[in-house]
Amino acid sequence: MTKVLIKSVTISNKASSHHGKLVDVLISAGEIKQIGKIKEEVKNTIDGKGMILSNGWVDMRAWLADPGLEHKEDLESGRNAAADGGFTHVAVLPNNQPVTQSKNDVGYINSKNPVSLVQLHPIAAVTIGTKGEDLTEMIDLHTAGAVAFSDGLKPIWHSDILLKSLLYLQKFDGLLIDRAEDLHLNMFGVMNEGIESTMLGMKGMPNLSEDLIIQRNLSILAYSGGRLHLSCLSTEKSVALIRAARKKGLTITCDVASYQPLLADSALVDFDTSYKVNPPLRTQKDNKALIKGLQDGTIDVIVSNHTPHDEECKKLEFDLADFGITSLQTVAANIAALSQKVELHVLIEKVTTNPRKLLGLDDSPIEEGVQADLTLFDPSAKWKLNAASNKSKSVNSPYFNQDLTGKAVAVFNNGQSYISKA
Asked: Which of 57, 75, 173, 358 is the most exposed place for a label (fewest CB within 10 A)?
């Protein structure tokens, strides 16, 4: 990587002595060489006025569909989309073909993942085939390089499996990630259960399907101990339940998809399958609770919940279309929108420091002499996600061909860099 000078940028990193300060930053040979007022003339100079420089963003939840479903996404296209979205680290869900459930499966992701700009971190399955019935060899998977354990796109529906997993993972302080969903209550559901689903004549997915499983999970966690992370919160009560559990001293963390607090079920009035996600878009009341959870720290992490699909899975009748949004490249725009209600430095922490701590990744402060693992974010940049700017193999995004505000301008990691042209 050649020298890059970023002029007049604001640092967002609480562990840094430069946090909140307006400085110049010189990056050379993969290292932060100088921070302060820099007079040296550098060919590759970025005017960082109005921009935020933080540690490289980390996505704790992305499905890259590789191996087995590479027509939707593969590890290379996923890395490209991640870099353009501002991420230098991505934790990859196990729901591939085959499922990431053996040392060889973890090894496949790592073998396709050399030291690169965007580092992929395999999340291994909790149960064989993510069927929720028989536990995988989690100690072996941890030794092979799995950073956490989850059935990914599927919830851990079996209470005894959840209990045994929490107990088993304590042997090496492993992190269990679950997306709370009662499959039976949601059976045949396609959107949030409420006024909108009634008016549209579609089977709803009630808040209870999430709230009930969160109550179960918290009760089992209180009984077993361990580290539990709940992914993709969507309801008002789920935030309240986790807030109360924290006050009781439970080791519970959680995340929200970046788009979830910004979109509501009213967006489905035209039956646009781009908005069909799981958990479903809820109501404005739920979204206000999610924003409050981001403000007060109840919600620790913001994730992309990147779920790419080919047109054959999305251009269908609404009830037949698959759930999911391709979203790695639009997290920055979502964060810019959320910053109207939540302090920007707080939001940045939820894609940097917090996920790094949970996954055990390096979280060195932004200081001179430190290896550059950085994201440069412009919350006011205007751009459009379209065929020209899209790095993913899939286009299932409600933001496609829309004018967006907020963009990752550049990322630096492992001696490499990417500067966006969008």
From this structure: 173
Tell whether the torsion through CA atoms of 88, 93, 98 and 100 is positive or negative: positive
* CB contact at 8 A, 78 and 62: yes
Q: What pLDDT is recorded for position 1?
A: 61
For the chain, domain boundaries: 57-359
pLDDT for 180: 97
- CB neighbours of 337 closer than 8 A, spacing ≥ 6? 262, 405, 406
Question: Which of 103-117, 224-238, 391-405 has the weakest average pLDDT?
Answer: 103-117
3-state secondary structure of 296: helix
| 389/230 Cα distance (integer angstroms) | 32
pLDDT greater than 90 at residue 295: yes
Among 278, 275, 309, 273, which residue's Cα sits nearest to residue 73? 309
Helices (H), 248-386: 284-296, 311-314, 331-338, 344-349, 353-359
pLDDT tens digits, one per residue of 219-233? 999 999 999 999 999
CA atoms within 13 A on the CB side of 246: 17
Q: Is 223 exposed, middle or buried (0-12, 13-18, 19+ CB in 10 A)?
A: exposed
Q: At what angle do helices 284-296 and 236-247 cross, to 10 degrees?
A: 30
In this predicted structure, what is the pLDDT of residue 240?
98
Reply yes or no on whether the pLDDT at 422 is more than 70: no
- Residue 6: phi and psi, rounded to 5, are -105, 120
Q: What are phi and psi for residue 105, nearest 5 degrees?
A: -65, -45
For the entire predicted model, the pTM comes to 0.96
Residues 57-359: name the CATH superfamily.
Answer: Metal-dependent hydrolases (3.20.20.140)
Number of H helices and number of E strands within the chain?
Answer: 12, 18
| Distance between CA atoms of residues 168 and 343, nearest Å | 38
Average pLDDT over the chain, rounded to an integer: 96
DSSP assignment string, 15-80 = TSTTTT-EEEEEEETTEEEEEE------SSEEE-TT-EEEEPEEEEEE---TTT-TTT--HHHHHH
User: At 165, phi and psi to the nearest 5?
Assistant: -65, -45
Q: Find the DSSP H helices in 44-189.
A: 75-85, 103-111, 138-144, 159-169
> Rg of the chain over CA atoms, in angstroms?
21
CA atoms within 13 A on the CB side of 108: 19
| Cα–Cα dist 124/105, whole Å | 9
pLDDT in tens, 70-82: 999 999 999 999 9
